[in-house]
Amino acid sequence: MADCWSVSRPLPPLLLLVLAVACGPQEVSLEGDLEGPPAELFSSLPQGLVTCDERQDTGYTSGTPFAITVVTCDSKPCERDTANAYAVMQQAAAAEGVKLVVVSGFRTQAEQQYLYGCYTNCNCNNCNLAAKPGYSNHQSGHALDLNTASPGVLAWLNANGGAFGFKRTVPSEDWHWEWWGGGPGGGPCGLTQYGCTTGEADNCAQYGCGCQDHACSGGFCPGPGCTADESTSCTARGCACVNHACSGGACEGTGCTARESNDCAALGCGCVDHACAGGACSGSGCTTRETSACADQGCGCVDHACSGGACAGAGCTLSQRAGCADAGRACGMGVCGEPLAPLPGDGETPPKGTDAGVGPAPTLEAAVGTFGCNAPTAATPTPAWALLLAGLWLVKGRSRQRR
Ligand SMILES: [Zn+2]
After folding, report:
1. Cα 90 to middle of ligand 1, angstroms
2. Residues 6+ apart with CB under 8 A from 293
3. What confidence tens digit (pLDDT) does each residue in 245-268 have?
4. Cα(270)–Cα(261) distance, rounded to whole angstroms?
5. pTM for the full model?
6. What is the Å distance from ligand 1's center to 176 Cα?
7. At 344, is the pLDDT very low, low, confident or very high (cuts 50, 70, 90)?
């Protein structure tokens, strides 16, 4: 797969200035390039060759220079991101039997100056129209002149170029196509260590996400933002993987991406190890590492913070408190405790038993309190003090009779 991007063959003689067109007045457009159509024997051009050996050059946008990374498309210099988009489009066209060829790609200031001189002095390049040096989108790296004079090429581009992010920006120049982003992504050059182009990575970064195998992942996007290998490695350490780093479980961090945390927060819950936990959800809302650290202080852990025991707070999540309240009990350290005092005027006794599935089972102490100790017994034996009183009364009565 990778080989098809890096085939190298002897380059044909580089025809730098192949533009040829009848002079004649032309409408000056500020939008795109001003140039004549490329004239070259297209059948002699190499095709399907995007080589990713990079070099730095100086590009220009609106007369302002900037550093540009250049690779090679069909033997022509091309800006790297544009080359990636082109390579993907070129492959799709080839699959439909259409042979796209770059006739002119990135141009240096010197090359544009030469073309502009030919145009103004009318002494070379057929006196062809050329954009002012520093103002051609061949210099910004976005423009490619393609072999639209070849049969079928222009029709294919008109039908499909847009899907790959390529647009014709100058109506009078059907060979001149520009790429400013868009399309399916992909391409062979400048891949980050995670299998994305720098353009894709930059695009994902704008959404607060990483990029994984040509797709945004992690951060505020779906997915953990980790490679399969990274996830396996983190799992072996007892941790989750988030944004290319071990997190949660026995490791630092919550083990959740920003997106997961947001989604759980919308449910009134925290997030632990890629799952909603704590708050209104089941679970303590703490990682194993957090739980262990709090236990060392003699505390429980709730929603990523020490609570209960030796620490401030009851040590119960919202869900646990609600579960205990349903059973008429307070919650402490994650378990339901003594029955709550009934509200004044409320003749009902607290409901017996626990709500199945909500909160932990009550403590033994609480269960005893509910189920028997205070219940009235059927037969109460006559107390000793009553017998004594009765005896005294009898003795007193007899002494009265003796008088
Ligand atoms: Zn052009």
Report:
1. 17
2. 301, 306
3. 999 999 999 999 999 999 999 999
4. 7
5. 0.51
6. 4
7. low
